[in-house]
Amino acid sequence: MKQKETLKKPDWLRIRLATDGNYAEIKEMMRSKTLHTVCEEARCPNIYECWSNRTATFMILGDICTRACRFCAVKTGMPTELDLGEPERVAEAAEQMNLQHCVVTSVARDDLKDGGASIFAATIKAIRKRMPFCRVEVLIPDFLGNRDSLQIVMDANPDILNHNVETVERLSDRVRARAKYRRTIELLARAKEMKPKIPTKSSIMLGVGEEWDEILQTMDDLRAVDVNILTLGQYLQPTPKHMPISRYVHPDEFAKLKEEGLKRGFRHVESAPLVRSSYHAHEQTDSANAAITAEPVPMDFERGMSSGACSSGI
Known about the structure:
- By secondary structure, the protein is α/β, with parallel strands linked by helices.
- It has a single domain (18-302), classed as Aldolase class I (TIM Barrel, Alpha-Beta Barrel), CATH 3.20.20.
- It has helices at residues 2-5, 21-32, 38-41, 47-52, 86-97, 117-130, 147-155, 169-175, 181-194, 212-224, 251-263, 281-291; strands at 36-37, 57-60, 64-65, 75-76, 101-106, 135-139, 160-162, 200-206, 229-234, 268-271.
- The strands form two sheets. It has an eight-stranded mixed beta sheet with strand order 1-2-5-6-7-8-9-10, with helices on both faces. Strands 3-4 form a two-stranded parallel ribbon.
- Strand 6, helix 7 and strand 7 (160-162) form a beta-alpha-beta unit.
- The chain is globular, with a radius of gyration of 18 Å.
């Protein structure tokens, strides 16, 4: 264990720091609208790049998560309120940033009957009302497997439905809190059953003790339920209290995993050390869209765009 805690960060893993005018403006806007971003709350390594490019992933349902996953820096505890005005403020911010691909995620709210699904739906609708041509990607929790909650989100017709598997099945119970590997696979399967034309997406973080064959099996499990977009990135320990890093995965291995994913039929695979679930999300979507050949593309998925990538935690 001591060896894992003292692993030296390799020279090829460097985070570019940039706090220009755009960075400061985005930070001030989030404060003025009392909004949260996963960029800050989860200590995303790409925050400087993304905020300087006027992009961010909105985190709704407050900043206190009812779970305590061993890899995540978001605050945990019991939330005390539900902000019904939040969806409109998110839409205002997205409009102010002139986003054309907006990513919305949340903390887990196991204290709510629907897990916060109604707020996700309200946020999608608020953004669409202000910005009809903005694609909306949602990165949702598992809602404890509640089918009705997932239906609420899917009925709001997000352009991308994202739910992260996070790690391989053997490590899932140790890495995640309350979330279950098979429940994640089932949720992604149900999303496709409910809305077959809405693309689905998931993410795997590496460096927590997984084996090569287990990564490939996770890919196979995701493709078995027709997940379309896959992202893979390096786990980075946010604080000494969190799960230690097992190893730093070399960029060459990420490149090989991208090849494996594409061979398995994912429309797009984003695979590199600093990749996070919604990093360069607009480019992922465009690439996946371009990869479609025989199957029809839903009208919403064809919306034009010129800016607005978002970066989030894995």
